[in-house]
Design brief:
It contains six helices and seven strands, in the order αβαβαβαβαβαββ. With 196 residues, the chain is an alpha/beta fold. Strand 4, helix 5 and strand 5 form a beta-alpha-beta unit. It binds S-adenosylmethionine.
Length: 196
Amino acid sequence: MEKKEFLGFEKDEYVPIMKDESMSFLSQLCAREKPKRILEIGTYIGYSASVMLSACDAMVVTLEKNAENAELARKNLAPFGERVTVVTSDAFLYIARDDIGKFDLIFLDGPKAQYINYLPFLKELLNEGGVLVADNVYFHGLVRQAGEVKHKLRTIVVNLRKFIDAICLDEDLESEILDIGDGLSVSRKRGGHGQA
Ligand SMILES: C[S@@+](CC[C@H](N)C(=O)[O-])C[C@H]1O[C@@H](n2cnc3c(N)ncnc32)[C@H](O)[C@@H]1O
């Protein structure tokens, strides 16, 4: 299904949907990894979820804080039936639960300043050999840029730098930062087999 066919596509002037090349990477990763369970943080109107659902046979749980977005996503994702669950929740409240099982792939595309705070929980939720993908880790180039960052964006940039350092230094993870779209990080939890 084309992006523009999604209900709600035109609703925001700035549509925070993943860039095409990042989407294509995610689709190929899903096709290669064949995950059984995927967790997505940041559904918006369901486009990236639809790309992952189309690329493999996984069951997908996707989290969205905004009730209006979540409702549009449920409608857009209806063709995938019971393979997808759109949960209206603040992501943190959901990932901190201990009754949601483990995932083979986690796609992190929610609030950028929170990636670093979510990381310990996401590591726990990932099966050994599973992959954590995070979008926008370069945040419009600001994360790699030297010099002052506008006050409004400083927390996001500082926290994304902490996130990148954390995944690269974590001995349980094998991480790479890809120059795709707005920067994509790919981290495999050690202990399983295969390569990201
Ligand atoms: C970049 S958009 C997701 C785009 C989507 N993954 C795609 O490419 O089609 C980020 C979404 O995360 C949601 N969001 C922001 N903070 C959140 C939170 N704390 N918990 C859950 N969702 C959140 C926003 O409402 C927004 O819809």
